[in-house]
Write a structure and sequence with these properties.
By secondary structure, this protein is an alpha+beta fold. Helices cover 34% and strands 8% of the residues. The chain has nine helices and six strands; from the N terminus they run E-E-E-H-E-H-E-E-H-H-H-H-H-H-H. The strands form two sheets. The chain has a four-stranded mixed sheet with strand order 4-3-5-6, with helices on both faces. The chain has a two-stranded antiparallel ribbon with strand order 1-2. It starts with a strand and ends in a 54-residue tail after the last helix.
């Protein structure tokens, strides 16, 4: 949930349910295979991170996943993709129901991703930034053989530092542009965003990944914004100094990740466009979803292999997406 402040600058509501699922169960929710259900929407960049990390680490057997549709009303994300509009495991039509089970009358944002405790039907957490870190550090017993180290101890300080700047300036920066309530707020947000994108581009001009020589949590966090840049943020959010496809380093980097198993195969461009252009009626009152851009260029050669690096370090790529978890035909690049 977010709002436009009186001076016109977008401010994100960051009041999340910060309960954690940990190996030692110190918050009352121990890691247990089959106990929890990850609820996501492919359209949402914050939820998209959890889909990617769950795939990369191979947590499919330990943690089931439920997909909300790309649009929602003012009350809640809904399970309109499922038969009868009801999640087949939780048996609820709205994610709101799981929030209310935990906190009756919950007044903050009904957000994805959320992890639900299946036995009680209660949301455990919607703290998206912590969820993926815990997948890497608390769920290790259930990682697949060959799972990459997305949050290695020796690089955590640097990953945290880079990820924090990416969050404030890029992940949230595009929203700051899109939901600016005044020309002054928009101009400031636009300058901040492209200053940060230029910084990231410079950083990536000589190295294949953001931190170290393998894919880390930092790359996952940047990728989900870049994947939405040309289809949504460039036009809908007025982030239009350049298209991603006109920023050579970032465009090659984004394609490199897109073509890496676990990244591009989670991206549903149709749902992404439907979500932003239909839900944000204040920005797009007609709710018309644009047909473009042509997305076939995501599969063109990127040349980033020349920088070296080992995508999965000493590990291996994940296998193909599971049946029932695949992006529908025609929705990807």
């Amino acid at each position: 949930m977010s709002y436009v402040a009186s001076q016109g600058e977008f401010t994100r509501d960051t009041n999340y349910i910060t309960t954690r699922i940990t190996a030692d169960g110190r918050d009352g929710y121990p890691v247990e295979p089959g106990r929890y259900r990850l609820i996501v929407a492919r359209a949402c960049p914050w939820a998209n991170r959890t889909i990617i990390v769950r795939r990369l680490l191979g947590l499919e057997d330990a943690l089931s996943i439920g997909f909300c549709g790309p649009t929602h009303d003012e009350r809640s994300w809904t399970f309109d993709l499922d038969p009868g509009g009801v999640d087949p495991v939780l048996k609820i039509p709205r994610l709101q129901d799981a929030y209310f089970k935990r906190v009756p009358g919950y007044e903050k944002g009904i957000t994805v991703p959320a992890i639900v405790d299946v036995p009680t039907g209660e949301v455990v957490t919607n703290d998206f930034a912590q969820i993926t870190l815990d997948f890497s550090t608390e769920w290790t017993k259930y990682h697949r053989d060959g799972a990459p180290q997305l949050y290695p101890k020796e690089l955590r300080d640097e990953i945290d530092e880079v990820a924090q700047r990416i969050y404030t300036e890029v992940n949230n920066g595009v929203y700051r542009c899109g939901f600016a309530g005044s020309q002054e707020a928009y101009d400031s947000a636009y300058d901040r965003l492209f200053t940060a994108l230029d910084w990231v581009s410079e950083r990536l001009s000589g190295q294949r990944y953001l931190v170290g020589d393998t894919i880390t949590e930092a790359d996952v966090r940047l990728f989900t914004t870049l994947a939405r840049f040309d289809p949504v943020y460039h036009g809908h959010f007025k982030c239009n100094r350049n298209k991603l496809a006109e920023m050579p380093v970032l465009w090659a980097y984004a394609r490199d990740l897109f073509q890496t198993p676990g990244f591009g195969d989670t991206i549903d461009f149709v749902q992404i466009k439907q979500h932003y252009y239909i839900v944000h009626k204040d920005i797009n009152p007609t709710q018309i979803v644009p047909k473009g851009p042509d997305l076939s260029n995501w599969l063109t050669p990127h040349g980033r292999e020349a920088l070296g690096g080992r995508p999965f370090g000493g590990g291996t790529p994940p296998g193909p997406p599971r049946e029932g978890e695949r992006v529908p035909q025609g929705h990807g690049a």
